[in-house]
Design goal:
Shape: globular
Helix content: 25-40%
CATH topology of the largest domain: Rossmann fold
Distance between the termini: 27 Å
Structural class: alpha/beta
Number of strands: 13
Radius of gyration: 19 Å
CATH superfamily of the largest domain: P-loop containing nucleotide triphosphate hydrolases
Strand order of the largest sheet: 4-1-3-5-2-6-7-8
CATH class of the largest domain: Alpha Beta
Number of domains: 2
Largest sheet: 8 strands, mixed
CATH architecture of the largest domain: 3-Layer(aba) Sandwich
Length: 324
């Protein structure tokens, strides 16, 4: 059974009547967490709270959020869809009690964005919170594939106030212009480009002049998750650097998204110098890079979530364990 978790992370509040909330959406692997990390680590003078909706059984996104020194609030089964919004309500209620200037909601790449926006109108939330806007991170490398794979990707674009085109530094320039042209036919939202999530933070936090989601006919809103999509969350011990790279090169085709923390074995027995690497896979592309050293009491394990369809979970885990 797939599980989702909501986590809230509190980063320095100016007195205001209501806390503005920005929803950050986008397809799996589009760069939402990268954008959130940029916002949390930029010098913008605001104290921002973040609520993260995860896909998978492990708290991977909480690990990837860089500014995670503050207490995390983890909630089970935090699906953002219409019928199970209670966890989002609880997370927003908790974080609104904190001393924050603004709140970001990072949705799962498989989640519809409109129900989250409508949730903010509930009486228990609307007294303290107000929707500032919806930002969609658009993966320029996998733009066509995402639209073809999941109807939710289209809804995310059409419901947003601002579109952030990611990976513009590695996409073909002609393809980028074609994507921009296609997007203009799907949405009238503003469009900006980003490399590694680096955009002017003020552009993301002041969208209150437009509310695209209100144009949607909520009574006709239907659940758009693809039921064939499944996930596997696997945890193993430290792995050999050569073996794990070979494993990543041979991941089954059915897996179109994977992310996690890789613990690379120490250089010598009892050296205590295991490397903490961040692994990301989107479509055919994958990368593994150093993030930060392990904390003294941090669990030194490899934790990866795989998302896709038509793959053997048991075989995948068996192959990963051989990398130890």
């Amino acid at each position: 059974m797939n599980k989702r978790m909501w986590q809230s992370i509190v980063l320095p509040r100016i007195d205001m009547k209501k806390i503005p909330v920005t929803i950050i959406t986008g397809a799996l692997g589009s760069g939402k967490t990268t954008l959130v990390n940029h916002i949390l680590t930029s010098e913008h003078g605001s104290r921002i709270g973040v609520v993260v909706n995860e896909f998978g059984e492990l708290g991977i996104d909480g690990d990837l959020i860089l500014a995670s020194k503050e207490k995390l609030i983890e909630l089970p089964n935090g699906c953002i869809c219409c019928e199970v919004r209670e966890d989002l309500i609880g997370a927003l209620g908790e974080i609104s009690k904190k001393d924050v200037d603004a709140i970001l909601i990072e949705t799962s790449g498989l989640a519809e964005v409109v129900p989250a926006a409508v949730t903010l109108e509930l009486p228990q939330l609307s007294e303290k919170l107000v929707l500032d806007g919806i930002v969609c991170v658009v993966d320029t490398i996998n733009f066509d594939e995402n639209l073809a794979r999941n109807k939710t990707a289209l809804e995310q674009i059409q419901a947003s106030d601002l579109l952030v085109l990611s990976k513009v530094d590695i996409v073909d320039k002609k393809k980028l212009e074609t994507i921009k042209s296609n997007i203009s036919k799907l949405s009238k939202a503003g469009v900006i480009e980003a490399v590694k999530g680096k955009v002017e933070v003020s552009l993301l936090l002041d969208l209150s002049h437009t509310k695209k989601f209100r144009e949607w006919k909520r009574s006709e809103h239907k659940h758009a998750h693809d039921s064939s999509i499944e996930s596997a969350s696997i945890k193993v011990g430290p792995v050999d650097s050569d073996k794990i790279q070979e494993f990543f090169e041979t991941i089954p085709r059915g897996i179109f998204r994977a992310k996690g923390i890789v613990c690379v074995k120490e250089s010598a027995p009892n050296a205590g110098d295991e490397l903490r690497m961040v692994f990301q896979k989107v479509g055919k592309r994958w990368e593994m890079e150093f993030s930060r050293p392990f904390e003294p009491k941090e669990e030194r394990k490899t934790k990866i979530v795989f998302i896709g369809n038509d793959f053997d979970k048991n075989k995948l885990e068996s192959e990963l364990r051989k990398c130890q």
